[in-house]
Amino acid sequence: MNPRLPDIVLQVRGTRCRCKCFPYVFKSRWELKWAHFLEYQKQKGLICGWDYEPKPVFEFPVKRGCIDYLPDFVLYFSDKVWQYHEVKGFMDQRSRTKLKRMAKYHPKVYIRVVKRKDIQHIGKTLGLQIPGWENCP
């Protein structure tokens, strides 16, 4: 670990991030920031909990292209109420296809797409109140 960055470790390949606060390796800094925000919501009692890249994977009955989907986060509001979140800094064609197929083949599953501007807005309004937010690159 880099002694100058005790809380965050950026892997050499890609933008994968890890923070000692969580047992996960996130695919992006946006996901890491969103995890800090969800943990803040959990501490405030707004959600019961959350998981990163929860199982099971949603499958699509197609032969080509995107055949499955794994959401970034699941939020638990109670034992029987939950919600999926997908963090997107940039919406590419593959991501659009997955979300369209989710809407078609799993219409009862709600997925909130968290965009870069949403995370930036939280950083401006709540960033100083969220533990670990200022340490995210």
What would you say about this model in short?
28% of the residues lie in helices and 23% in strands.
Could you describe the 3D structure shown?
- The protein is of the alpha+beta class.
- The protein is built from three helices and nine strands, in the order βββαβββββαβα.
- The chain has one domain: 3-Layer(aba) Sandwich (Trna Endonuclease, Chain: A, domain 1), CATH 3.40.1350.
- The strands form three sheets. A four-stranded mixed beta sheet has the order 4-7-8-9. Strands 1-2-3 form a three-stranded antiparallel beta sheet. Strands 5-6 form a two-stranded antiparallel ribbon.
- The longest helix has 15 residues, at 29-43.
- It starts with 7 loop residues before the first strand and ends in an 11-residue tail after the last helix.
- Mean pLDDT is 85; it is low at 1-13.
Topology:
Layout: E1 8-10, E2 17-19, E3 25-26, H1 29-43, E4 49-52, E5 58-59, E6 68-69, E7 73-76, E8 82-88, H2 93-105, E9 111-115, H3 116-126
Parallel strand pairs: 8-9
Antiparallel strand pairs: 1-2, 2-3, 4-7, 5-6, 7-8
Mean pLDDT, nearest integer? 85
Secondary-structure element series: EEEHEEEEEHEH
CATH topology: Trna Endonuclease, Chain: A, domain 1
The class by helix and strand makeup works out as alpha+beta
